[in-house]
Amino acid sequence: MKISYRVRFVGGSKYQKSLDTEASAAGIPIPHPPAGDADKAKPRRTKSRSGCKECRTRRVKCDETYPVCLRCQRRGSICRSATRPVQWHTEMPWLSHSVVLDSWTGHATPNKRLVQFWIEQTSHMMALDRNNNPLSLPLLQYLAACPSLLHAVQSVSAGHETFFSSESLRTCLEERGLALKLLREEVQDPGQMSISSMLTVFVLGVSSPWIELRPNAYGKEHLDGARALIKHMLSHKRMREDSLAKFLLGWYLYWDMSSSFLDTTEGASRSEADDIVAVLHSDDCFHPMIGFSSELYALVATVGRHCRWVLENETTLPGLEQDLRDRLLAWQPGHHDKHLVNLSLAYRNHGILMLYRTCETPVASACKTSSEETQPGDTAETECAVRSLVLESICMMLKTPLSEPCANFQSLPLLSAGAELMSTDEELRNNVKARFKGLYSSSRVMVNMWAIELLEELWDLHDCGVNVSWIDLCTTKGWNLCFS
Prior knowledge:
mainly alpha; globular; single chain; 55% helix; 21 helices
């Protein structure tokens, strides 16, 4: 006897409907699943409201892990996450009903949405602690009194919201132009310049490279202006005692350090740097942008400028370079926060690596005692010490979760250490690239993607036997990578 089979298609399909119609016409009963089975077979899906752009494009559910979702981590792709809702935002929508900006006397009406985005999102990429950030809530009182600062903040906020995409910079550039115009009016009398206007110079200057299509400019004119303002601030005791002024002093140290290898323009003199460090140490307190590392950053800035000078003049100063190396090795972090200590040590190693690769300054091995100095001809020992510093830096930085605010400050030492990785370090190279992608997802600043491009080109050269430093390659390409 021939056995016949009936194939049942998914309910609702055109094939199943035609079979059901034929069966009904022939008087054959049609089995139907219990009413509850259909609901059990199709579990209810929670719609992702803050999924990243990559997952939305692929039409897959995003787990919304910030700053890089798990799917993007597995794919190794760039995660452009949506803006995360602030937990207390629905309970206290303070800014939309705030009277702080309602007394505004400027020409253009404040964009409260961009101001709120700055306070809740953008400002935190420039601070080590979300709960101690002068650029967030405490900034409101200065925005109401300084039109240029308001529009500078709105400019950066508009750019940050769109990952500084060149196709979406219209609002950013319009606000920036207005901020520059108002700033020129405010600084007509430099002697009467307010702290708020000085802060405008910093916001516009630091964000200047973020809106560039390629890494060709780094805001040199803004940095020069900031140097003049810092000198003015240091000469007025009453001004430098202001809490915002102290924040600007620390911010300047970081900005100067991260730009120091881009040109040989004299930054803060040794005495001025010492004065800044003394002012910041007078309170013996944590600085929201540089932590407890003011002395270290001033020293690394000196190293960066000297290395650029050596490249341009093709000569070295062994006595000075040895002194700089010894001072870096002698520096120790004066605090116990694990992630901040790792960040500080990574910057210290960055300074030592720059001295070695640019000036061929011997690097003391961790295995040697202080009395056993590494000699200039001891190449194998020096290379071993360099290798140790590189692995130490990368290991420390990768241990810091991307969710930690201090991770946003890793780019420069990560590039310096990553540039030393060899062809046998394929896994570490991939980890470094993944970290830079994560930093881009977090900060939304393109310099992190340009760093990957530079490293890949540098690694190819090294694998072919061409010995060149990352600073040499930047100079050859005409790049100015600014990590401020």
